[in-house]
Amino acid sequence: MGNIDQNGQGVLARDSLRDTETRMALRNKLRLIHADEPDAAIINELSVAHGEARGDLAVVNGSFSGNEIKSGRDTSYRLPHQLAGYEFSFNAMTIVVGSHHVASCVDTCLKFQLGRTVILNKEPSGFCGK
Questions:
Q1: Is 57 exposed, middle or buried (0-12, 13-18, 19+ CB in 10 A)?
Q2: Domain definitions of the chain by residue range
Q3: What is the model's pTM?
Q4: Quick check: helix, strand or coil at residue 105?
C-alpha cells in the first residue's frame, strides 16, 4: 500500500484486489503504522451502533478508527447505512474502495460527519492522493 496517512486514515481505491487481499494488505499496513504502540489493537469485523453496522477492521489506540472495504466486486448500496452507524462510533474512517466506487463514495461520505477523511486513489503505479 502507498500513501495512507500516519494514522491509517483515507479512502483507497483499486479494482484488481479482492476483499480478502485488500483486507490483508490494509491489516499489514495498519500493523506497520501502529507497530510502536503497544496498546494499539486491530480488530476484525467490529460491530458498532448496537449491531446496525460492522467495520471490516477497527483500530483502538486512544482513538477509535474504522476501516470499511468495498472491493471492485462489491456494491456501495449499503454504504450510506453503514456510514450512519460509523458516524457515531468512530473518530475517523478509512474506506477502501474499488475505483468505480470512488465518486459515489466521496459523494456519500460528504453527507456524514466521519471525522478526518483523506481521499486516495490506487493507480497501477501506486497509491496517490486524490
A1: buried
A2: 10-129
A3: 0.74
A4: helix
| CATH 3.40.1350 corresponds to the domain 10-129 | yes
**Predicted confidence (pLDDT) at residue 45 exceeds the cutoff of 90:** yes
Which residues neighbour 124 within 8 Å (Cβ) at sequence distance 6 or greater? none
Q: How many beta carbons lie within 10 A of that of residue 44, not counting itself?
A: 11
More confident residue, 129 or 73: 73
Strand order in the sheet with 53-60: 10-13, 92-97, 64-70, 53-60, 41-48
CA 39 to CA 53: how far, in whole Å?
A: 25
pLDDT digits (tens, 9 = 90+) for 3-34: 444 444 454 544 455 677 778 888 998 999 99
Q: Are strands 53-60 and 64-70 parallel, antiparallel or unpaired?
A: antiparallel
CA distance linking residue 56 with residue 74, whole number of Å: 13
| Pick from 7, 116, 113: nearest CA to 59 | 7
Q: What are phi and psi of 33, to 5 degrees?
A: -60, -40
